[in-house]
Amino acid sequence: MAMDDIVRRTSGIEPKVTSAKMNHGVVPKTHPTSRSRKRGNQVDRKATPSTDPGKGADKEKDKEGVVAKSRGWEPWSRQSIKEFYNALKQFGKDFDAIQKHIVQKSKTDRKNYDQVRNFYYNTWGKISPRIDLSDIDAPKEAKELFILINYGEWQQRTNYLKIHGKLVTNFTELVRKG
């Protein structure tokens, strides 16, 4: 009598591992309710649609069925950037008010709160290493806001020229004099 039959008769419980022939090289079969997955039961994650709105939403199929990844957000136009800096002067670091101002002024460029916030911090991250205002006695947030407002002025005056090399001293002079 096999050990499995004895366990079944005495306890009434099915064993987790059913015995196959105990030949050399044969792996015992697993019970269907065990946690290990069988190759046939695996789910192809690429074939199933994503339920998360953030994932997979940025992919579109063209006529040939090729999946092309598109941008999740529209790039910032010069008009939107100009309105961002105008709103920054007016509202300060109030991202919600800046976002509403941009939407109100531009009917085509719809920017949400996260886009405005990301644009602010990404711009600050680009500018902050280049400018040293440690000798000015003001709170950090005030310096940050003042530099970003002046950066908006810089972009309008120089036709969106990036700050590098000798231009850093010119920009620093603009920030110091206002």
Describe this structure as you would to a colleague.
With 178 residues, this protein is mainly α. The protein has two domains: 1-31, no CATH class; 78-177, no CATH class. The chain is built from six helices and four strands, in the order αββββααααα. The chain has helices at 3-11, 78-91, 95-105, 113-127, 140-157, 167-177, and strands at residues 17-18, 29-30, 59-61, 67-69. The strands form two sheets. The protein has a two-stranded antiparallel ribbon. Helix 2 crosses helix 3 (95-105), helix 3 crosses helix 4 and helix 4 packs across helix 5 (140-157). It is elongated. Residues 50-58 have low confidence and may be disordered. Residues 1-70 are annotated as: Disordered. Keywords: DNA-binding, Nucleus. Residues 55-66 have a biased composition (Basic and acidic residues). One of its GO terms (cellular component) is nucleus. One of its GO terms (molecular function) is chromatin binding.
